Structure formats: C-alpha cells, structure tokens
C-alpha cells in the first residue's frame, strides 16, 4: 500500500492597478509578479508549478473602460518523471478602494477561464477546484483573467487582488 502523501505547491499572482480619475485618453498598466510558496506535508515531493513568465502586464483600454484580458500560462511538472495525478485549486480575491476611504469593496464581474473553459469561484470560499489531471512529465495550463468595466470618473481608485494556484497530488500517488 502506498503511503498517503500530499504535496501542495502554491503559485500566487498579485496585481495592483489604479483607475485614473478624470476623463480623456489616459492609459494605465497593471503588472503581475508571480511568487511561489511551497508547502509540504509528510515529506512528500514530486510536483512543481512553473510559470511561463516572471512578470505579466496588461494595459487599461479607454475605449472599453477596462484592462485588456490577461493570459497566464504555467506547467505542472512531475519532477521525478513518474505518473502523477493532481487537482488544481485557484483562490481568487479582487478589490477596489476609492481615495479617501478605508473600506475595500469586492470587485465584481471578473471572469476566469482555465484551459479555455469558463470557471467560476465559489461564492463562499472564492475558490475554483478542477481536476484530476494526469501527467508523467509536464502538463500545460492557461489561466485567462478578464477584468470588468472600470469606468474613469472623478474618483481615484486603487484596485488589487491575487490568484493563488495550488496543485495537490491525489492520495493514490
């Protein structure tokens, strides 16, 4: 019987942007810097998440009053080149704050696609869970992030959030 092993590998994508106050043809840019946190239980190993870039950037499009969609690719790798089965969990949180206020307001209308299919976070946990997936070397995943309309007005807003991606080995591997 195989030992029960869990291995969590978390990839965080954090974004921060400013919706510029005022009217006119102003542009903004959002930069996303992935960071990695590894959590191991029971000394397990054998899985890794590798993003395709170190920095992701998108531009605010005045005509659509939104940031352009953002695609973030990553490989889930079997580091021992053996068969693995895993699930992906995405924890998403997005907020905006108007200048002069202390309260963050949840940004609504954000749309996500994982591997070309629309996915929706749980209302309670903000989490998306997909799988199982199998590979003996590496498996490519594409996460697409579509921002809602963020109209320019006379109020300065700061919007920010993160997407945490967890790859967890199934108990049978």
Characteristic terms for this protein:
disordered N terminus, mainly beta, five-stranded antiparallel β-sheet, 173 residues, 60% strand
List strands and helices in order, with pairings.
Layout: E1 6-19, E2 29-41, E3 47-51, E4 56-61, E5 66-67, E6 70-78, E7 84-98, E8 105-106, E9 111-114, E10 117-119, E11 127-135, E12 138-146, E13 157-169
Antiparallel strand pairs: 1-2, 1-13, 2-4, 3-6, 4-5, 6-12, 7-8, 7-11, 7-13, 9-10, 9-12
What radius of gyration results from the CA coordinates? Answer: 18 Å
Q: Summarize the biggest pleated sheet.
A: 8 strands, antiparallel
Q: For the residues shown, what is the average pLDDT?
A: 76
* Number of β-strand runs: 13
Report the portion of residues in β strands: over 45%
Helical fraction: under 10%
Q: Specify the overall morphology.
A: elongated
Helix segment count? 0
Which stretches are low in confidence, meaning pLDDT under 50 for 5 or more residues running?
Answer: 1-10, 20-26
Explain this structure.
There is one protein chain. The chain is mostly beta strands and 173 residues long. The chain has one domain. It has no helices and 13 strands. Strands 1, 2, 4, 5, 7, 8, 11 and 13 form an 8-stranded antiparallel sheet that branches. It is elongated. The N and C termini lie close together (11 Å).
In short:
With 173 residues, the protein is mainly beta. The chain has strands at 6-19, 29-41, 47-51, 56-61, 66-67, 70-78, 84-98, 105-106, 111-114, 117-119, 127-135, 138-146, 157-169.
